[in-house]
Design goal:
Elements lengths: L3 H10 L12 H15 L2 H4 L22 H5 L4 H12 L12 H17 L5 E4 L5 E14 L2 E12 L5 H11 L8 E4 L2 H15 L18 E5 L10 H11 L9 E7 L1 E2 L22 H11 L13 E7 L23 E5 L5 E4 L6 H14 L5 E10 L2 E7 L21
Length: 423
């Protein structure tokens, strides 16, 4: 288990920000790191029912229509593509700098490993500039989950400075001391990045079917067998994240007694402008998986009321309104004017099981304004915030408005979840 402070830093590098003084026990933080890594590699998509048997998948090179392994391992989302594009327009050659974020560095390293696969699969050595930590690795095989998802079968061994194991020494010597020395791929990787990559490798090593015994060199007998998948951004955390943030940010109330709810009537977000082309995009949509396109296709075939997956239980939603004072690149897409400032309202939950629009023109003015005014006053950039909601009907929802008797809740209860909850 990594030190507590390092786990928090690594989680933060993946967009999972927790309070530095969080009271979560070390074991829970460690578990959260594991889940974040699984989410980042879309594990349940590729390995829905572990263990993984690589022999059940065709060789990547056998399908001549496949792109390079490098292109297959590459992952990015809409938000990252926007950042890269904007920085390039500003003349910034390196929009995502190396060695400043361990998670981004791991993703870059995976592309370097994939590129090595395209160049004949040479042995790979990853080490930090000070050579205090290193990983010896070799890709044994590349299998194909689908045309955009390679599975890299690897063996690896980790050593630290002044304690090079016999296994690593023999392995390196076998490539550099032969009559025809083999070129090695050397990849610079910070110690923190190595820790994150090792965590990923060790987790996946336990997910291989025991009967899988690929051929390896005699010097690799002590190496660990594992696999690597394409890694993208962490889309959202788990229920434990919400529970911890609820503890951190909830007012000191022990019940819903005294709460006031603002009732709103909604329509489907994709019916906002009938006849207009609509595409729902999240900054976490994976470009390679066509997430946005799949959501649009689903919307075309599902025009009834959204399923009530929460029942009568209050749940967290993001409320986003249009405002002439709003900041951010998306604002120009939503026109407003002084007379109708606050425009219409978008409401959605974490998994987009509810993704709806509330029209100001067809809503109770007082209740709509009560919610919109608070969002503009207290929300991020004056346009959005988190709050509690409850479904009251097929096309109606109530937003939580509190009058806490303890006086500690404020007039409107919002949840400051930061990046622990990805919506």
């Amino acid at each position: 288990m990594l030190p507590r402070e390092e786990i928090l830093v690594l989680l933060s590098s993946m967009g999972v920000d927790l309070p530095r003084r969080t009271k979560l026990p070390d074991a829970e933080l460690d578990k959260r790191l594991s889940k974040a890594l699984d989410s980042a590699q879309y594990l349940t998509r590729v390995v829905p029912a572990p263990p993984l048997d690589p022999t059940s998948y065709a060789s990547w090179s056998r399908d001549k229509s496949n792109t390079t392994v490098l292109e297959g391992i590459r992952r990015h989302n809409v938000g990252e593509a926007t950042i890269i594009h904007d920085n390039k327009m500003k003349g910034i050659d390196n929009p995502i700098p190396l060695y400043s974020n361990a998670f981004m560095d791991v993703r870059q390293t995976l592309m370097s490993i994939a590129n090595a696969c395209d160049c004949g699969m040479p042995p790979i050595v990853l080490q930090d500039p000070g050579e205090s930590s290193g990983i010896c690795m070799r890709v044994l095989d590349v299998r194909q989950f689908d045309s955009q998802t390679p599975i890299l079968i690897v063996v690896f061994h980790h050593d630290v400075k002044d304690s090079l194991s016999r296994g690593s020494f023999d392995w390196i010597s076998s490539y550099v001391s032969s009559t025809t020395p083999t070129a090695m791929a050397n990849i610079a990787a910070t110690v923190q990045e190595q820790h994150l990559l090792l965590r990923l490798l060790n987790q996946n090593s336990k997910r291989l079917v025991p009967s899988y015994k690929p051929k390896r060199a005699s010097t690799e007998a002590s190496f660990t067998l594992s696999f690597l998948l394409p890694v993208g951004a962490v889309r959202y955390c788990d229920a434990a994240c919400q529970k911890e943030d609820w503890k951190s940010h909830r007012p000191l109330c022990n019940s819903w007694q005294g709460a006031k709810w603002q009732g709103l009537t909604f329509i489907l977000a994709d019916q906002y402008k009938p006849g207009a082309y609509s595409l729902r995009i999240s900054r976490y949509d994976n470009v390679q998986h066509n997430d946005a396109q799949k959501r649009m296709e689903l919307a075309k075939h599902n025009q009834g009321p959204p399923a009530n997956t929460h029942g009568t239980t209050p749940f967290i939603v993001k409320v986003q309104v249009n405002s002439s004072t709003a900041l951010g690149p998306a604002h120009p897409l939503f026109k407003s004017n002084a007379q109708n400032d606050g425009g219409d309202m978008l409401i959605y939950d974490q998994r987009r099981t509810i993704d709806v629009m509330v029209l100001r023109a067809s809503s109770d003015v007082a209740q709509f304004s009560a919610v919109a005014d608070v969002v503009k006053a207290k929300g991020e950039r004056g346009i959005k915030t988190f709050c509690w909601a409850i479904r009251t009907g097929e096309w109606t929802i109530d937003i939580f408005w509190t009058s806490c008797r303890s006086g500690r809740c404020g007039d409107f209860y919002t949840v400051s979840l930061g990046q622990s909850l990805k919506l």
